[in-house]
């Protein structure tokens, strides 16, 4: 009764909010911090994406293009990047953005006191060592790195880094403390009522980067068509459903099991959007049973992947056994290759590998927005047909994550959030398990290919690296990639535009009556 009463109060509040001409978006949790790239999570990234812009950004297919920069050039030795800035960019307070602001923002990020979560990616601890940021003139900035890197620009564009957004120095008080983000995006910071909502106002002075009139990641058409956007904290699924169907909410992510609630209705609609995240089965290649690649390959051949994906995704997913997403510029014909579904070949493979019915445990969680549990149950049934003794262990998500990080598992049914450059996705799985027990694959050839993917800047040569990686992965089968992550969103019927990108609400170029 108390839960129903609370939902009713929340719905009433939403109804009052919806009378305004804002777009109202439901998020499952509150903003963590409005300081770019500090104390962030997915919901925080979604809000900040509308306020912040970096020198470069990602396209829909994972390419990196100029955003606040008009152009980017790289020196012959691949160590110096020259950013020529657009001359039509102003901050939300009306000040013109110049090279001084870029240098100030980058120096602030690189200061350890800023607590920027991406500092290790740029200080040489992990990926890139940024050795210099210099102003050439008011419209030109150079950045220098210690070694050639194919992912330097991609790292700058990452949502987890606050998009390395360029902010006005006036975002910081006289005492050096952060006040509020004064960015350049299509919406600007307005109000934060903690635990309830974040409101962003329309940036009337916003000028989109050069584009073809269509949204494209974070770099295409970005005009704010609504007066503002209100991100409401609505963790309760029943309140979300009622809010969308009543028109009090305009947009919200919903779990796949709620899809029938929004189908064939006049007041709402479903939006199914694929992102670059992955649904897969991790395999512990140091496990006594699974250390044999013949067993791992047999497990893969026992899966009728189209049937498994259709069932686990409620018909929304498309099979993809590649680490690279289907909408990536690097998704080639080679990436489309999979081991065939062949029960008899799986049985023979197990016999040749000396498998003798040893138990294999798949760890799953029951979170409603990921297919961890249904995928595990379906895979169990399919693998048992080939003679595999597969069991399911259900854990809460936090415990499952801890088991993966510690390496204490045989198989884990897991979903991994988007990483738009394939090298960044590879690094989540590949490396020395003695140094990082959470990694999945330590084959020396795979590690060598990962290193090459980080260094090589030529797109054609990187394509060959990723194709070689996929071919090797099919031979070694350290994990079973099933399909790209699918986001299910419900929207009010009058919402127009493309309001979802990479799992985030994206409400520029979006309108609602």
Question: What would you say this structure looks like, in words?
Answer:
One of its GO terms (molecular function) is peptide transmembrane transporter activity. It is found in: Periplasm. Residues 64-428 form the Solute-binding protein family domain. This protein has 513 residues and is α+β, with helices and mostly antiparallel strands. The protein folds into two domains: 22-250 and 494-512, Periplasmic binding protein-like II (D-Maltodextrin-Binding Protein, domain 2, 3-Layer(aba) Sandwich); 274-487, Dipeptide-binding Protein, Domain 3 (Dipeptide-binding Protein, domain 3, Roll), CATH 3.10.105.10. It contains 15 helices and 18 strands. The protein has helices at 2-18, 42-48, 99-110, 119-122, 152-156, 237-246, 259-262, 293-301, 305-312, 343-352, 372-385, 397-406, 422-427, 444-455, 459-476; strands spanning 23-27, 56-58, 64-66, 69-74, 80-85, 130-137, 140-145, 187-193, 197-202, 228-233, 251-253, 268-283, 359-364, 389-394, 411-416, 479-492, 500-501, 504-505. It has a ten-stranded mixed beta sheet with strand order 8-9-10-1-11-16-12-15-13-14, with helices on both faces. A four-stranded antiparallel beta sheet has the order 4-5-7-6, covered by helices on one side. The two termini are 34 Å apart.
Query: Main beta sheet: strand number and arrangement?
Result: 10 strands, mixed
Helix content: 25-40%
The CATH homologous superfamily name of the largest domain equals Periplasmic binding protein-like II
Tertiary shape:
globular
Strand content: 15-25%
Secondary structure: number of strands:
18
Question: Number of helical segments?
Answer: 15
Specify the CATH class of the largest domain: Alpha Beta
The residue-averaged pLDDT reads: 94
CATH domain fold name of the largest domain: D-Maltodextrin-Binding Protein, domain 2
CATH architecture of the largest domain: 3-Layer(aba) Sandwich
What number of domains? 2
> Which segments are poorly predicted (pLDDT under 50) over 5 or more consecutive residues?
1-9, 15-20
Protein name: Peptide ABC transporter substrate-binding protein
Organism: Martelella endophytica
Keywords: Signal
Family: Belongs to the bacterial solute-binding protein 5 family.
């Amino acid at each position: 009764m108390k839960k129903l009463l609370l939902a009713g109060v929340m719905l009433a509040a939403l109804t009052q909010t919806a009378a305004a001409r804002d777009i109202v978006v439901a998020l499952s949790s509150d903003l963590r911090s409005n300081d770019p790239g500090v104390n962030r999570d997915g919901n925080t990234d979604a809000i900040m994406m509308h306020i912040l812009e970096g020198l470069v950004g990602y396209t829909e297919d994972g390419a990196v293009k100029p955003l606040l920069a008009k152009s980017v050039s790289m020196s012959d030795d691949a160590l110096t990047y020259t950013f020529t800035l657009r001359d039509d960019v102003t901050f939300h307070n009306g000040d013109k953005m110049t090279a001084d602001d870029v240098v100030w923002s980058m120096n602030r990020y690189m200061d350890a006191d800023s607590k920027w979560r991406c500092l290790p990616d740029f200080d040489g601890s992990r990926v890139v060592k940024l050795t210099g940021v210099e102003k050439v003139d008011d419209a030109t900035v150079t950045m220098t790195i210690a070694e050639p890197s194919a992912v330097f620009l991609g790292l700058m564009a990452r949502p987890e880094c606050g998009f390395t957004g360029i902010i006005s120095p006036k975002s910081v008080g006289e005492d050096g403390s952060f006040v509020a983000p004064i960015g350049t995006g299509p919406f600007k910071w307005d109000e934060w009522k903690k635990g309830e909502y974040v409101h962003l106002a329309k940036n009337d002075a916003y000028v989109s980067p050069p584009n073809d009139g269509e949204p494209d990641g974070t770099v295409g058409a970005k005009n704010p068509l609504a007066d503002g956007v209100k991100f409401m904290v609505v963790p309760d699924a029943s309140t979300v459903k009622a809010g969308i169907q009543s028109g009090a909410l305009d947009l919200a992510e919903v779990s796949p099991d709620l899809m029938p609630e929004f189908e064939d209705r006049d007041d709402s609609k479903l939006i199914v959007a694929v992102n670059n995240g992955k649904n897969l089965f991790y395999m512990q290649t140091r496990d006594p049973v699974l250390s044999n690649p013949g067993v791992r390959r047999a497990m893969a051949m026992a899966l009728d992947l189209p049937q498994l994906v259709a069932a686990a995704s409620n018909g929304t997913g498309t099979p993809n056994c590649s680490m690279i997403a289907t909408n990536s510029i690097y998704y080639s014909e080679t990436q489309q290759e999979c081991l065939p579904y062949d029960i008899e070949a799986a049985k023979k493979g197990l016999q040749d590998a000396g498998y003798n019915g040893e138990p294999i445990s798949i760890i799953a969680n029951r979170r409603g927005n990921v297919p961890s549990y249904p995928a595990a149950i379906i895979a169990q049934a399919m693998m048992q047909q080939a003679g595999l003794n597969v069991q399911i262990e259900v854990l809460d998500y936090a415990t499952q994550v801890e088991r993966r990080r510690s390496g204490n598992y045989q198989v884990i049914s897991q979903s991994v959030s988007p990483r738009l450059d394939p090298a960044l996705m590879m690094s989540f799985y590949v490396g020395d398990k003695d140094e990082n027990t959470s990694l999945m694959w330590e084959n020396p050839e795979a590690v060598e290919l990962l290193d090459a993917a980080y260094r090589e800047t030529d797109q054609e040569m990187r394509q060959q690296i990723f194709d070689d990686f996929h071919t090797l992965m099919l031979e070694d089968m350290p994990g079973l990639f099933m399909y790209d992550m699918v986001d299910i969103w419900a929207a009010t019927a009058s919402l127009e535009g493309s309001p979802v990108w990479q799992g985030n609400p994206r409400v520029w170029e979006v309108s609602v009556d």
